[in-house]
Amino acid sequence: NNHLENEDPEVYNIIQHEQWRQFSSLELIASENFTSQAVMDANGSSLTNKYSEGLPGARYYGGNEYIDELENLCRKRALAAFRLDSEEWGVNVQPYSGSTANFAALTGILSPNDRLMGLDLPSGGHLTHGYQTDKKKISSSSIYFQSMPYQVDPATGLVNYDMLEQNTHLFRPQLIICGASAYPRDWDYARLRKIADQHSSYLMCDMAHISGLVAAQEQNNPFEFCDVVTTTTHKTLRGPRAGLVFFRKLAPITGKPTDLESKINFAVFPSCQGGPHNNTIAGIAVALKQAASPEFRNYAKQVKLNARVLSDELTRYGYRIASGGTDNHIVLWDLKPVNLTGSKVEKICDLVNITLNKNSIVGDKSAVTPGGVRLGTSALTSRGLGENDFLKIAEFLHRTVKISIDCQEQAGSRLLKDFVRVAESNADVATLRNEV
Ligand code: PLP
């Protein structure tokens, strides 16, 4: 860090402040994690200087002998981390991030205006799974393809597979996407495969949130039933910010070769991207080695255990947890029964150094004022927190709700700006911040 401190103290200081923020707060954002120093060393290395468009052995630039070795190692480790046979599965490790991995997958397997179905954003799905509103196509995945989202059942908070199946008969999608950003339950891939097969649709899983848990065999295995599996590498997988696309080389039952390898590789480069970020690929390789270790399996188990404890304890305090619990690292907390919005609780949490995000809960009247917050246990589990710590965190969260209710009453209006004004001078906020 000496170079940075000497040459650019302004940037250096910002990084120091952010590092302190990360260290001193309780990080409950479900999509974040603390990657290891080894991953950060790889990510901040001289590999950032190199151009290497193309694939190992077939580059558009010279001087790539070590980069080829690195990318091959990363691909090998990616398959190994998910116990995949290199005859049956291949992987592209070049996507810059989860969104680009998804768009490359769509570009590879669909033609413009083809039809796709993904979990709706208000149901917990991701933007890149075809998100659009009644008024507007939002994501490029709904601008360039036709999208008909499926939903969770508002009564149970679980994916409504029956409704999805009925709608596939109307919409006849070329692609069904499963996986989500705010879904606390596991997926029924066998059922999805059956639904997809009725209209010869591709089945793609975006396992971004749960890929670390899948690697540790703590979730159902999407590779058993899907044609394509995408992921980010920086959530439960605990690597640098990037994406991966896995594709089936042989069809599941017939064992016949698919054309997915050439389609996906061509879609990543040259259709969607230019030169890969080799420093990031090195970081992914390091993270994948870690993810294949026995320590990582214990970590993934603890992530789930902590989420269950957090969910149970909040339920014990009388709160409503969407879907009634969790199978993974996510707890989706519905604040409508206590008459609060996610924005207000997020604000109080920010003031007391607890970091989380507001999240819509299925059945919210308006998507603009989400009715809940999303909590995740992967980051704090990386910092060594266990069940007792999460009981304490549940108590802190309970107190943030009590403070939010007080501030809402004192503000005398429902506007967020009045709420913030009152919150900033609330004495209980200062007390709680000290305890956190
Ligand atoms: N897919 C899912 C399920 C996600 O939750 C996210 C991000 O939160 C992404 C894709 C996009 O990843 P990125 O932010 O790296 O583009």
Automatic annotation (TrEMBL):
Catalytic activity: (6R)-5,10-methylene-5,6,7,8-tetrahydrofolate + glycine + H2O = (6S)-5,6,7,8-tetrahydrofolate + L-serine
Domain of life: Eukaryota
One function term, GO molecular function aspect: pyridoxal phosphate binding
Enzyme class, broadest EC rank: transferase
PROSITE patterns referenced in this protein's UniProt entry, alphabetically: SHMT
Residues annotated as signal peptide: none
Keywords for this protein: Methyltransferase, One-carbon metabolism, Pyridoxal phosphate, Transferase
CC annotations in GO: mitochondrion
UniProt modified residues of type N6-(pyridoxal phosphate)lysine: 235
Pfam families named among the record's database cross-references: SHMT (PF00464)
Coiled coil: none
Pathway as given in its UniProt record: One-carbon metabolism; tetrahydrofolate interconversion
Function as written in the Swiss-Prot or TrEMBL entry: Interconversion of serine and glycine.
Family: Belongs to the SHMT family.
Protein name: Serine hydroxymethyltransferase
Organism: Smittium mucronatum
